[in-house]
Amino acid sequence: FLARHIASRALDLGWHVTALAREALQHEICPGSDLLVANPSDNESVTQTLRGRPFEYVINCSGAIDHSSFFEGGSNTLISKLVGTINIVRSLDRSALHRYVNLGSSEIYGQLPSPQYESLTDDPETPYAFGNLQATKFLETLYRSDKFPGVSLLLFLVYGPGQTLPRLLPSIVADVLNGKSVKLRSPDHRKDFLFVEDFLDALFRALTASGVLGETINICTGMPTSVEAFAKHVLAALGRGQLEMLASAPRQTDNSCMFGDNSKARALLAWSPRISLVEGIERTVRARLNEVGP
To answer: Do 114 and 139 meet the contact criterion of CB atoms below 8 Å apart?
Structure first.
């Protein structure tokens, strides 16, 4: 989802784009970009694939979103993010590199109270969150020790056209189009929903902004929205549908109120979100309806 949007924006700017992906993801890469296939968790695979290929800008959006426990698959998620980051960084031609952007997750804040800001003590509760935290800390350390030109962006809940199941918005749309009621397990939970174009604006500013090397920056709206309110906006954009509130317990490690402070992004990137929640949802729903047809 994010990789396709990033590649598309870069191509629109006239950049030469090369995507590094696992073989299983080849069909998801944006048309017009070159493709390299390697397993980021395998150092030899990454080294051989990147050898002799200088890159000026690198954006690492690797790492599957998986909140499983360590013994139920979470170990693979941790390795994919942390070891993958280390392998890619040490395989790059540093003489050509201008900027390396790591896309991390707000999940590193765990149950810390909102608004969450970058100087808070991190509180990861899953291998996924821990892997993201360690990749972020690794790049901070690497800048201090070696002046490696890295910056980490901590993403909250990015949504937009092209997002697939089982994410929240496409799940709601799929249920409605299939004539089902939309079941919400945590309707009162409040989250920070960011439209993908606003994320892209922040990302491409981070690629060229001064004063951001070695930094970790929240990319968020700073505005909490309940899951129920979000779902109602989606139904309004669809013009139909019914919600059903479930009594089942939410994911144990899910923070019931999670939104960020974006003052650091405003200061360092001269960035703030432009697209309202209603507009972002309407644009996403229209795009999905165009994909599936009448």
So the answer is: no
Task: Give exposure, 101-120, as e/b (b: 16+ Cβ within 10 Å).
Answer: bbbbbbbbbbeeebbbebee
Q: What percent of the chain has pLDDT over 70?
A: 96
Residue 151 tokens read as: 């910056």
- CB 253, CB 208: distance < 8 Å: no
Residues 100-104, mean pLDDT to the nearest whole number: 98
Q: Which residues contact 132 (CB under 8 A, 6 or more apart)?
A: 63, 81, 104, 105, 107, 108, 124
Which tokens sit at 191? Answer: 């989250």
Tell if the pTM clears 0.90, that is, is over it: yes
Is the separation of the CB atoms in 21 and 122 below 8 Å?
Answer: no
